[in-house]
Amino acid sequence: MAGSLEQKLQELVEPIVQSYGLTLWGLRYRVGRSNAHLQIFVEGENGVDAEACGEITNVLSPLLDTADLIDPAYILEVSSPGLDRILFTREQMLQSVGQEVSVNLKIVTEGRRKIEGLLKAVADDGTLTIEDKTHHQDHLVAFENVSVARIVPDYSSLL
Length: 159
Prior knowledge:
The protein is of the alpha+beta class. It is about 25% helix and about 35% strand.
């Protein structure tokens, strides 16, 4: 979808993030009942600190207001993607093969709205193969049917 709101926001945000030596991992814009929320996830080779997130927020806020792409009443959040990071792209999915994921689906598939398990493969057409952690069976999921996909962190490896 050329020219989507997310794409326009990304084109505006990405050069600012890169000017800090960071990478734009992804962004998410959601509209709630009382306000809108723009989350911008940034990543660096040595992680991301709160100071950099604050500086990026201070630069982006007036820029976003001037661009007038989103509702004037919104919350802007700039942060690291974290251990339970959202996977926004097929490339990020491909880099995450072998990890446990939690995937919410747009359309119920095989009677399920959510699948958790091992991401075993990402096909050239974007089809994900996820081994269900409960039933140990493979599920094929079209990337286009993914509402939100997250890494499920293995906290035991941090101990």
